[in-house]
Amino acid sequence: MRLLLTMVCLTGLSFTATGQDESAKFYVASNGNDSWSGRIPEPNADKTDGPFATVQGAKAAMRANFEDWSRRLGTVRPVEILLREGTYRIAEPLHFTFKDSQWFVMPRQNVTYAAYPGERAVISGGVPITNWQQEGKLWVATLPEVAAGTWNFTALWVNGEYRWRARTPNEGYLRTAGKAPAIKDAEGKEKPSNVAFKFAPGDIQHWNNIEDAMIVAMHSWDTSHNHIAAIDDANQIVTLVGGSGAWPFENWGPKQRYYVEGFREALDAPGEWYLDRKKGLLYYWPKDGEDPAKTEVIAPRADRLVVIEGAENLVFRGLSFHHTNHVLPPEGLPCQQAAWSVSGAIDASGARNCVIEDCEIAHIANYGIWLREGCTDNAIRKNHIHDMGAGGVRIGVSSDPKTEADATLRNVVDNNWIHDGGKKYPAGVGVIIQRSSYNTVSHNDISDIYYTGVSVGWSWGYAPSSANHNVIEYNHIHNIGKYVLSDMGGIYSLGISPGTVERYNHIHDVYSYSYGGWGLYTDEGSSEIVLENNVVYNCKTGGFHQHYGKENRVRNNIFGFATEGNIIRSREEDHISFFFERNIVIFDNGRPLGSTWKNGNYKLDFNCWWDTANPDFTFAIGGDQKKTFAEWQAMGNDTHSIVADPLFENAAARDFRLKPESPAITKLGFQPIDISTAGLYGDAAWVEGPKKITREPVSQPKD
User: Are 193 and 179 in contact (CB under 8 A)?
Assistant: First the structure.
């Protein structure tokens, strides 16, 4: 029965409905009052009613009255809480549980928190710093809570830009000067030290407040973050609190890179800052033109902005989520692939049928969003996630679900713009799926991070995996790595993963520090994955690389212009590594292959190979062995393949559209790939956003 008009008054709140299909609207505004009804968007003339003042107040009112509203109305309808223009500051995360859903009825109706139409609402976990005093070139602010030990922070934003903690050196790295003496493990056996290393003269000193100083060391694909425990000046050895974890220092070679941050003596350049925790003083060296009376300086307090535990049908739309804190424990952070222990600004467990859309998540010290255990059927779409301490979106956790209810399944990450991450934890990933299945990652634009674009799977080797049937499609992944970390991929996979597909992705400009800047990277045990219709180019160490795995299918892709080898196979195994069919591989360095291709346990056919510089290239199969194309075919490879110009529109300009007469089409049956369908979709302003990023050129560091 259609409800024409109903008015319900209870506990000071009125609930007006004009139709069963309409939502009930409530409002939050900076000039509101949490004792008001929240039913009108502005205070009335008598200032006796109007919007709520805080999101917490609105949420509490919703929770208190959901069931009563439903009973009195005889129907259940969606609820909208609309936030008016302004910044809503919180010291602790907004906490949503099952009771914040319309939990009392099936099917569930949405409870939506959204920006008021045409207005910008910001939920911030930061505190404005305003009490500046001038001290020479520096601004100094007194923070009593810091001195009292109740507040600490390791990130700062000035006029919406991330500012780096004072560090040495200001750019580039210091280098270790050798290994420290071996240490003993729990069984008394000696092993290389992961708690100390030798330093060059003058690099480590007895700085003031040295307990605040943190050594950030680069370990191939991850980083360690540790305070200083002791300095042995005589032997030039520094010992760390906690240690680097799995990887000893200089495990990846001598002269390991590191820098030291967070101490007063390093404050020597505009844009840097230092927090003296003992005295409760924040020091900032302003950039040219910054005025303390006009400059917004934000220090983060809340470690997360939203926590969801067991809620259903929550929607967050059109909101901005800014400023989170992430302070490490005293033992620091050991090496962690993908910075996997770092929280999310929006952190969910047991969330079902929730939506985060058209939001901005920015200026955060951690990941943007994390869907932990038990999160199913959620959608993350059309969000702008940027200026991140770690990465963008996390799905699943690092262990198998203990019960069926703990499984994270069927989530969608679609049409998001994710960029400029790794500000604190360089190993952060654009989108990572750990032990989770049946998820889709599609149409995202991911760029300007220091590690992998999309990572899927979290099982090493051939052990059973709880990550399968994931679809990674139509993403634009580019300008990653930036010569900072190594062993990364545009798309990186781990473990046995039947049903997983990587298709129609546009991947380019993947540059690692040393080895491992790959486009498509099937790492340890990656098996039963289909990689098709991708366009991959300008990668440092190869467009495709398989470390080891079983029977992956690599078909109808374009791989172009790797700096080193183009197609890489690292480990010889007794089974078929992969099927490599109907691909185009174009290069200009005479290196179609890399690593080892000796035992023949792979299947290549119907491929088009072309070297734009020298059509008489050879196939390096391992060691010093090289084969002409005829000799390569005589080994049983590429029987129906060709060496021919594939006739791209303009390969030099990276225009990989094929001309109709391309031999790849006419002779091999290659299906042309339209990369214009990869990346963002929607209105022009949204789609054009990534194209407006300006980047300074990056180049391989000189050791």
Answer: yes
Bridge partner residues of 697 (DSSP): none
What lies within 8 Å, CB to CB, of 617 at 6+ separation is 590, 591, 592, 609, 611
Helix, strand, coil in percent for the chain, rounding step 5: 10, 40, 55
Domains of the chain listed by start with CATH number: 1-82 (no CATH), 95-125+302-438 (no CATH), 126-166+267-297 (no CATH), 174-265 (2.40.30), 450-551 (no CATH)
Q: Return the higher-pLDDT residue of 655 and 24.
A: 655
Q: What is the mean pLDDT of residues 601-629?
A: 96
Give dist(CA 620, CA 623) in Å, integer.
8
Q: How far apart are CA 271 and CA 259, in angstroms?
A: 17
Helix (H) or strand (E) holding 621: strand 619-622
Contact between 584 and 646 (Cβ < 8 Å): yes
Spatial contact of 663 and 642, defined as CB atoms under 8 Å apart: yes
Owner of token pair 């050196």: 169
Q: What CA–CA distance (Å, rounded) separates 52 from 31? A: 8
Specify whether the CB–CB gap between 314 and 81 falls below 8 A. no
Query: What digits encode the pLDDT tens for the residues 38-65?
Result: 999 999 999 999 999 999 999 999 888 7
Cβ count near 281 (within 10 Å): 19
Three-state secondary structure readout of 452-495: CCEEECCCCCCCCCCCCCCEEECCEEEEECCCCCCCEEEEEECC
Supply 657's token pair. Answer: 């559209």
Contact 525, 497 (CB under 8 A): no
Tens digits of residue pLDDT in 542-557: 999 999 999 999 999 9
> What is the edge-to-edge ordering of all strands in the sheet holding 367-371?
94-97, 306-309, 344-349, 367-371, 393-395, 431-433, 454-456, 488-493, 517-522, 542-546, 567-569, 593-595
Note the pLDDT tens digit of each residue in 65-97. 776 665 555 556 789 999 999 999 999 999 999
- pLDDT (0 to 100) of residue 218: 97
- The answer to whether the predicted template modeling score (pTM) of the entire model surpasses 0.70 is yes
Are 72 and 104 a contacting pair, CB within 8 Å?
no
pLDDT of residue 2: 30
Torsion of the alpha carbons at 222, 227, 233 and 235, rounded to the nearest 10? -40
Distance of alpha carbon 386 from the chain centroid: 9
